[in-house]
Amino acid sequence: MSLERTQVINFNSGPCALPTSVLEEAAKGLLNYKGTGIGLAELSHRSGYFGQIVNDLAGLIRTQLEVPPTHEVLFTQGGATGQFSAVVLNLLARHRLLYPELSEEERVMDYVVTGNWSKKASEEAGRLGGGVVNVVTDARTVSEDHKSFASIPPHTSFQFSKKPAFVYYCENETIDGVQFSTDPASPAAFPWESIKEEDFVPVVGDYSSSFLSRPIPDLARHALIYAGAQKNLGPAGLTVLIVRKDCLVDTDAAAKLGAQPVPITMDWKVIHANNSLYNTPPMFSMYVSQLVLEHAQAQGGMPAIKLMNERKKDILYDVLDEGAAKGLFRLRVEKASRSWMNQTFHVLGAGKEELFLEQADKAGLKALAGHRQVGGVRVSLYNAISEEQTEVLVSFIREFIKENAA
Ligand code: PMP
Question: For the Aminotransferase class V domain, which residue ranges apply (predicted)?
């Protein structure tokens, strides 16, 4: 069966849906960029045309997220997973330059583990070595079954080390659907009160799964915010870094003092010194990302997109709560830590989950199966999913509850 775009709603978790109008324009540029007779992917990355895309894209991110002048916007490859490694290498190099006399045991990397992505990042830090990993909190210890990630634990359980080389957290855990609260007064907010400004400890946030879905609170307090492009920004292949200038360090000088050498493509200072063009960048992904951000700007930018995303997740959680109250659904995540972008739940009763996914698929509601690691159902409401499309899903779920709840 061959389907048209208009016949389906794509709830993929990333790569995910992108705006149709943007893809139509990108398709034109892929064939003939700005009347040059040459397609975007066939131009030189050193051309003025592409230099303009790099600058415009950085400018759009700066404007939309209100990036302060203390921070640089950089582009690289290797995905978010590449940064799991780059964070360790660059920030341990920084630490080495600041404190050359410390032993490896005294170079501590603090990881806040609230889901499968921050867990993976902490494991990579352990694998690379050069310092020791301190797990500040492991959210599994406070979940009912001690196996799943279901909430952001209370701040009192966070065990930060004294002066770590950095503190690392993941803002929204796509696989699990756990998110730090956007309300700073919530116990599920990031515990900024534990980070002493005067210690100048770099705080790193993996924003891959919520990037550009709303403004980033406390952006200026972070040393690094990074994200893979493949959710709200554009096609996979591009990784965006928003990095505070003091974290762009001479890693070769650090290596002379005993730090691990940093592969040149992972070296943030080198990326910056070359205006993100040290080597050939993911040109098509950057081009589409620029178009996506122009589209977002026309929609009213981050404040308008935040409101839209808030309304979308509210109507979805309302119907999921209704199903849970009737004993048909079990939501995986506690209320205060629920993700705006990724809603995860189980359909209870023999064969009901399979039935839900099968009927949804037939209705054109695609890609709703949960991540292979955790199963269940996962909805992803990235920016390109409209409110009307969310309402279609909500109506489907309401109907399913009517037919299947006892
Ligand atoms: N971190 C988070 C929060 C993610 O959602 C993902 C998946 N997109 C990753 C890291 C891994 O990203 P990548 O596949 O780009 O390495």
Answer: 9-392
